Amino acid sequence: MTFQAYLDTIKAKTGLGPQEFRELAEAKGYLQPGVKTGTITAWLKEDYDLGSGHAMAIVATFTEQPSDEARLAKQFAGAKSAWRPTFDALLASVREFGTVDTAPTDTYISLVKPTAKGVAKFAVVAVTADRLDVGIKLTTAQAEGRFEVAGSWNSMVTHRVRVTDAAQVDAELLDWLHRAYDAA
Questions:
Q1: In this predicted model, what pLDDT tens digit does every residue of 94-146 receive, in sequence order?
Q2: What gap in Å lies between CA 104 and CA 138, rounded to an integer?
Q3: Under 8 Å CB-to-CB from 126, ≥6 apart: which residues?
Q4: Using one digit for the tens of pLDDT, what is the confidence trace for 57-97?
Q5: What is the CATH number of the domain that holds 154?
Q6: CA end-to-end span of the chain
Q7: Which residues contact 112 (CB under 8 A, 6 or more apart)?
Q8: Are 53 and 104 in the same domain?
Q9: Three state DSSP letters for 77-94
Q10: CA atoms lying within 13 Å on the CB side of residue 30
Q11: Percentage of the residues of the chain whose pLDDT score is greater than 70
């Protein structure tokens, strides 16, 4: 689930968005220095019946978060910059399937598509100096060849492909990504 999907779910459940929660927290004195996160999450759980993950998403909105553009730039900083053209080409190809958005974190980039319930993640990309790791969420496919089981590398996807050359973003990889997109 993406961060925005958490916020959308909270809004649907409570009728409140991040700004309203910020105002309520401020009125209770929870945004003062020294207030522990556990105090705020306990309040959100008790008063709004939020789970831990959803409560933490609201708490995260109380602090400045880097923009998606800043997170993307960080992914391709320094020795990893050589992979930006390959990622951009992969993203352009995937967008031929339909609407695809990126949801970058500090450690990987989720590829998501809009659904009736928000967004669905169908792949992730992690960038290293040596390669792109492409994680694919495709529960119906068996691991084979370069499409290995994701295992503990990333529990949000089922398969992992280590791309060490731009030419490896080929028809086979795009076919797997297309099937994952359709299944999401």
A1: 999 999 999 998 899 999 998 888 789 999 999 999 999 999 999 999 999 99
A2: 20
A3: 107, 108, 109, 132, 133, 135, 154
A4: 999 998 877 788 888 999 999 999 999 999 999 999 999 99
A5: 3.90.1150
A6: 12
A7: 2, 100, 101, 102, 103, 119, 120, 121, 122, 184
A8: no
A9: CHHHHHHHHHHHHHHHHH
A10: 21
A11: 99
CB 21 within 8 A of CB 61: yes
- Please tell me whether residues 119 and 175 are part of one structural domain: yes
Both tokens of 118, joined, read: 């928000």
Find the domain containing 73 and state its range: 68-183
Residue with tokens 């169908």: 122
**What b/e sequence results for 44-56 when a residue is b if at least 16 CB atoms lie within 10 Å of its CB, and e otherwise?**
beeebebeeebbe
| Residue indicated by tokens 């030419």 | 167
Q: Is the pLDDT of residue 1 over 70?
A: no
